[in-house]
Amino acid sequence: MFSDTQDPDRTAPIVATRDIAATATDLLLDHSWSGVGSVPLVGPQDLSQNDLARIMSEVLGTPVRYERTSLESFGARLRGFGIGDAHVQGLVDMMRAKDAGLDEGIERTADASRQTTFAEWCETVLKPALSRN
Predict the structure, then answer these.
(1) In degrees rounded to 5, what are phi and psi of residue 113?
(2) Domain count, the chain
(3) Most buried of 4, 22, 49, 82 (most Cβ within 10 A)?
(4) Which of the given ranges, 36-40, 76-80, 100-104, has the highest pLDDT on average?
């Protein structure tokens, strides 16, 4: 089981950390560019929390389910870790905005799209990490 605050059926772009790192490396090594800008990144498909659970179940060969947590519970858990109220409020507000569609504004273009699928990430990162435990 894994949990988050998102609607189980709301899809969002999922991008692998290795794809973020590769893009950052390319940008850091590009000496022809200067200034300030943003680089939106998305994975090859939008997935819901239920999609993530289904894919994890398939890759791991064991049932995985998603459980939605309230924003209040999320905030309380963060406070339990010693995170300050202002930071907690910012994270709760971000999760509320994500559930309202914040991530829908990024267009999937050749420049913004990355290749690693969630199933590949599960196979190469999640599954080996779980097998070590």
Answers:
(1) -85, 140
(2) 1
(3) 49
(4) 76-80
Q: How many CB atoms lie under 10 A from the CB of residue 121?
A: 21
Residue 94 has pLDDT above 70, yes or no: yes
Report the chain's mean pLDDT, rounded to a whole number. Answer: 92
CATH code assigned at 81: 3.40.50.720
Give the C-alpha distances (Å, rounded to integers) separating 92 from 2, 3, 56, 86, 100: 18, 15, 26, 10, 12
- Which residues does 20 contact at the CB level (< 8 Å), separation at least 6? 41, 114
Is 0.70 surpassed by the pTM of this model?
Answer: yes
Q: Using the predicted structure, report yes or no on whether residue 114 has a pLDDT greater than 80.
A: no
Mean pLDDT, rounded, for 45-58: 96
